[in-house]
Amino acid sequence: MEFTKGHGTGNDFVILPDPDNALDLTPRLVAALCDRRRGIGGDGVLRVVRAAKHPEGTALAGEAEWFMDYWNADGSFAEMCGNGARVFVRYLLATGLAAPAGETLPVATRAGVVRALVEGETIAVEMRRPRMYATAAATLGGLTIPGTAVDVGNPHLVCALPAGLELAALDLTRAPDVDPAIFPAGVNVEFTAPADPVEGSAGHVLMRVHERGSAETLSCGTGACAVGAVALRDAGQDTGTVTVDVPGGRLKVTVTDDSCWLSGPAVLVATGTVNPTALPA
Ligand SMILES: N[C@@H](CCC[C@H](N)C(=O)O)C(=O)O
């Protein structure tokens, strides 16, 4: 089985080319591929499949040739992955599956069609505008931190740390507790702290994330978009640009009247062959 390994600000993916949807990709196989000791290792899998050939992509095949079939490291599905979409586009361009168009390149996802713009090392993806829909809280280590529930195609809870608490002090080796009535399908939880102003940005925020289905990751693109939207709201703005620093690097989030751009590096690091029968059962 052919694979490529790539990442966006340290959010890493096993990319599987499967244009005709011929692979028997199961939750167990995804989890085995993502196993960091016995497999290739990754926060998730990106299957590269023609939209017309995938049951969840066919309806979008008129708008986008390729469907990003995203899976979390534990073998669960997610509707959207912002960094994954940027890495997916890097892969399409590197392999010649898509031409570096002057305009945006559409990619079908479970959350609809997103559009990518390539600017050298940086790939920006235009997704839906984050929608803040509830107040909620995350509890970890006996501490309950209030936050905002945000829909970016997938669910997020953005929690600003109280003064005096450092991001580095959080134990994210286990999932924060949340109210399942607000998040029946689980949630990605972002913790934030303010950072020094950055020129050209309305806000600058530090973030750590515990991802649904992938545990703590070095970065989460949709999470950064949720964080950006909350930072703008707290600054009294509907639109604008926010710089979000994650453990794996820097992302730029620009919220417009009707969409959200996520921008940052997207890198392919290796290509090879994996023997599925040698992976953990
Ligand atoms: N890391 C991703 C988000 C991946 C999906 C998430 N774990 C979920 O289950 O919703 C990103 O960059 O957006």
TrEMBL record:
The active-site annotation reads 81, 220
Q: Is Cytoplasm there in the keyword field?
A: yes
Instruction: Name the reaction it catalyses.
Output: (2S,6S)-2,6-diaminopimelate = meso-2,6-diaminopimelate
The UniProt record lists the keyword Amino-acid biosynthesis:
yes
Q: Which residues form a coiled coil?
A: none
UniProt subcellular location: Cytoplasm
Q: What class of enzyme is it?
A: isomerase
* Protein keywords: Amino-acid biosynthesis, Cytoplasm, Isomerase, Lysine biosynthesis
Q: What is its EC number?
A: 5.1.1.7
Pfam annotation, one family? DAP_epimerase
* Associated pathway: Amino-acid biosynthesis; L-lysine biosynthesis via DAP pathway; DL-2,6-diaminopimelate from LL-2,6-diaminopimelate: step 1/1
The record lists substrate as bound by: 11, 72, 82-83, 154, 188, 211-212, 221-222
Q: Name one GO molecular function term.
A: diaminopimelate epimerase activity
Name the residues annotated as site: Could be important to modulate the pK values of the two catalytic cysteine residues. 156, 211
What does the entry give for GO biological process? lysine biosynthetic process via diaminopimelate
Can you quote a single GO CC term? cytosol
Q: Which family does it belong to?
A: Belongs to the diaminopimelate epimerase family.
What interactions and quaternary structure are annotated? Homodimer.
Role played: Catalyzes the stereoinversion of LL-2,6-diaminopimelate (L,L-DAP) to meso-diaminopimelate (meso-DAP), a precursor of L-lysine and an essential component of the bacterial peptidoglycan.
UniProt name for this protein: Diaminopimelate epimerase
Q: Which organism is it from?
A: Micromonospora rhizosphaerae
